């Protein structure tokens, strides 16, 4: 999980994203670390709402520009999954979690999501998240992000 999060941040950096979006990419799955057993939830076909758990914890420490895309990155997956090409690129695990997270958004839900202030960065974060599933690549050390993380604290 931590490698995936680091890889997400590296992709956000490569895309010349803002510091807050790189930080959000680094922390987007933090809620999984706070859940007791994420694998057990999936096995029991339950959604642990890691995005909400991570958001509620991280908002005490990080700026809104960091935590809001984290809060909405699952909603962004549900939004993007309406597109058949995007959906077909999802891993089997992502398709299972999509179902547990409520499935694809309908038109009304999509229109409402498009109006939130952090819509664009939530979509970008989600795309970085999907791309960050490569194996056998050189991953930066978390220590390389210390100054970035510090710069995004409240």
Q: How many domains, as an integer?
A: 1
Q: Which stretches are poorly predicted, pLDDT < 50 over at least 5 residues?
A: none
Number of E-state strands: 0
Q: Write the H/E string, N to C.
A: HHHHHHHHHHH
Strand content: under 5%
* CATH class value: Mainly Alpha
User: What is the global morphology?
Assistant: globular
The percentage helix is: 55-70%
* CATH hierarchy: architecture: Orthogonal Bundle
Instruction: Figure out the total of helices.
Output: 11
Examine the coordinates and then state which fold CATH places here, giving the name of the CATH topology. Answer: Hypothetical protein af1432
Determine Rg (CA atoms, Å). 15 Å
Task: Label this structure with key terms.
154 residues, mainly alpha, Hypothetical protein af1432, 11 helices
Which helices and strands occur, and which strands form pairs?
Layout: H1 2-14, H2 19-27, H3 30-34, H4 38-43, H5 50-58, H6 64-80, H7 84-89, H8 92-100, H9 107-114, H10 119-131, H11 146-151
Explain what this protein looks like in three dimensions.
The chain is mainly α and 154 residues long. Helix content is 66%, strand content 0%. The longest helix is centred in the middle third of the chain and has 17 residues, at 64-80. It is globular and about 40 Å long.
In short:
By secondary structure, the protein is an all-alpha fold. The protein has a single domain (2-151), classed as Hypothetical protein af1432 (Orthogonal Bundle). It contains eleven helices and no strands.
